[in-house]
Amino acid sequence: MSSLQVYVSRGNQYARIVESYRDPITKKPKTKILKNLGRVDLLEKNEPGIIERLKKECVESKELNKQLKEAAIQKEVEQLLNGKDGTEESAGFPVQNYGVRIYQKIWEEMRLDQFFAYRQKKDSKISYDLGSVVKMLVLSRLMAPASKKRSYERKDQFIGQGEMEIEQVYRCLPFLAKEKENLEVYLNQQLSRKMDRSLSVAFYDVTTYYFESVAADDLAKFGYSKDNKVNQVQVVMGLLIDQAGIPISYSLFPGNTSDFKTLIPVMKDLKKRYGITKMILTADRGLNSGENLAFLKNEGFDYVVGFKVRSATQSIRQQILDERDYVPVGDDFRWKFLAYAKNDKGTHCDDRILVTWSAKRAAKDRTDRERLIQKSLRLVESKSRLEAEMKKGGKKYVQLSLLDDPVAVFDQKKVEMDEMFDGYYGIQTSDNSLSHEQILDLYGGLWKIEESFRVLKTDLEARPIFVKKPTSVQGHFVICYLALGIQRYLEYLLSERGLSVSTEKIQDALRSANVTTLPDLGKNRKAVYIKNQSNEDFSSIIKALSISEIPTFGTIGDIMRW
Q: Do 504 and 459 touch, CB atoms closer than 8 A?
């Protein structure tokens, strides 16, 4: 496409006609000089207004070329639809999704093709284009989560997928497992260049992912399932995210690993790979152990973690129930700080506990307890039900005797003890400079990691896991990690532009952006498309990203340049 270019050389302005094109090898935009027009001042002296006239003519020429191109495509479309192209009557034309191009743009922005090309050449003897296979799996996970086989079978539903074989899909998984740490470091570097990202605060939590299998191995094992899949093997994942909800790193553990045992290796790995020496780690009560907090303290990290009020020492419980020193915030909320000095694993901690009481939490505690009371009463009444249900919870208020033939009784004293602490919540911190508002804000941010788990499990369907070999399982989670990172970064971009959209709505919007593709008939004629109607959220998303909508019809190449 030609245009007028004015440039400065040795203090004088010159004009020339140039043509823009894309290098067929490097794919980078370039310009070619078509004609040098000379010095601007001399041109204007001979013909005043010539520069503006030439600019206008170039614009009009572009518009004319565009109109001629559209007219030619429209004529071709009409011929195809009216059956005047000499082909046999068709049963219909295929539909392809182009909304996936939004995810592809982020993939390109993060230069992930370059990463995989480099690691493939450096670390493997793989000859096929591994990056295109990984891209297909990640984009399929984002657009239409399914098994690896199913993703391969329907890859052509999405614009821009490369050629590949099903064997290559499975072969790439062990490679991804090996490159997991390199990929995490690379992606975090790219994100740090693209956004104002701080790792001074991170959120950590643990969840489980189950297999459609009962076959245990070194990684897949039976354990406490957070999905209530007690009869299936699982893996445990520890996930670390930043304040924007974008994943920093993750670790997989055997399915029988306790939550407590995951934090130390994750933080050791973080410090080793990123050199982070100062961070406030936020986690829930399930990770608050003396060993974990002592480790964090010794490594120079601070923490904001949930504190188990009902299992605290008698002295702490008395201070919590003592109404003195509470600061009221309206009628339904109050707070105060308690000093909390403790020695764990040879480490002395001078922490504080922020204790809060809220009417809303008190009501929730009562409702939750009533449900457990009813279940406990049913267990006490039936010994057979007790034996069958003990592994599934609900035994909090059931007290068993130590006889050979155990007798179950309802524990009314424990109920009364729990009632005393309705509405109270504790948050322990090692950073004494934090105000109660800052602590509540940091701890409240844990919803971001809970949402990330929900996105992984529900929107990206990371479970159940269908592959079996440990290296393939690890490769599966690399795909999920990449998909989550791209999704969260897109949500961050939209939020920065004033558009708050859920993962589910973004996926639905991008899935709604489709074209009907018409065949490539040869004779220098390119395959063309007709745009289908997309939903309103898609229009809002591309507008927020400052992307123009594709024309009503055009060539497939136009979409790939979009």
A: yes
